[in-house]
Amino acid sequence: MAKSVDEFNKKRLRSSNITVVISIALVLFLLGLMGLILINAQKYSDYIKEQLVVNAYFDENYDAKDSLKIVKLEEETFKKVQTLAPVKKATYISRSMAATEAKKSMGIDSDALFEENIFPSSIEVALKPEYVDPAKIDEAIKVIKSVPGIVDVKNDSTLMVDVYNNLSRILKWIFGFSLLFLILAVVLINNSIRLKIFSKRFIIKTMQLVGAKRRFILKPFIIEAVVLGTIGAFIGLLALFGVWYYFTNQIGSAFVQDNQQYFWLVLLVFGVGIFITVLSTIVATWRFLKSNVDDLYYS
């Protein structure tokens, strides 16, 4: 009879542990998914911002006999622009290149309509994402315009402001959902642990009544919590990257590959899983350690 009771308790304990691990894995999977979305959304936001360019123009009025000298000066100016703090990438556009682009945009194949030299040479500047901020774009333009050889800098400020505001709004929503999932992770993992500890409340109280110290009683529960949290986080991450790999293969895009940020995400998921599990275990166990024997029947 005693043997069958022990086997029943072991099965119940095993079932309880499996339930807790699955709960932790599912919650951390959702938390990690939001983390991946946030990482990639931020990177794509920066990528889109870098596509918003400003055009710095050289002086278009010069003598034909000075053309070689002007080309050399433009090369020097271009190198200076590349080293400026707000500049992410700079592309030199010669007069002939500007003419070719104009023909393409107007659908003209012939040179009869206009001469190549009517367009000034310029530098197409992609700004760093932080300088696309409407509060800093004017500062960046002033810095570029201050370079000797640049006579004018033009940009579509309205488009930049609209794109910046829309991207910022989207990132705020994603960040808000990430925080919501973090709160849900805390609540759900805490509830799973509390149910597990609740099933052992009589064992906890019995150990206390026979003289065991609170630290001695807590220790095995904390060790078990670390193990369950680690296993749950591992399963959750395994499922997460499996789903992410399948998804990116299906759409034919690798998304943003930033191993450092993915490494920190893995650490975060493991840290959250273990921390919440251990904290919930301590709080739930401490509650029964402080309670009276009669309270165990009404908890």
UniProtKB/TrEMBL annotation:
Q: Which residues form the ABC3 transporter permease C-terminal domain?
A: 176-292
Pfam families named among the record's database cross-references: FtsX, FtsX_ECD
Principal localisation: membrane
Q: Does the keyword Nuclease apply?
A: no
Biological process according to GO: cell division
> A cellular component term (GO) from this record?
plasma membrane
Task: Tell me the keywords, alphabetical order.
Answer: Cell cycle, Cell division, Cell inner membrane, Cell membrane, Membrane, Transmembrane, Transmembrane helix
Its placement in the membrane is given as: Multi-pass membrane protein
Is-annotated flag, keyword Translocase? no
Which locations, inside or outside the cell, does it occupy?
Answer: Cell inner membrane; Cell membrane
Q: Where are the transmembrane segments?
A: 20-39, 170-193, 221-247, 262-289
Which ranges carry the FtsX extracellular domain?
78-153
Q: What does this protein do?
A: Required for cell division and gliding motility.
Q: Which family does it belong to?
A: Belongs to the ABC-4 integral membrane protein family. FtsX subfamily.
Quote the protein name from its UniProt record: Cell division protein FtsX
Q: Which organism is it from?
A: Chryseobacterium pennipullorum
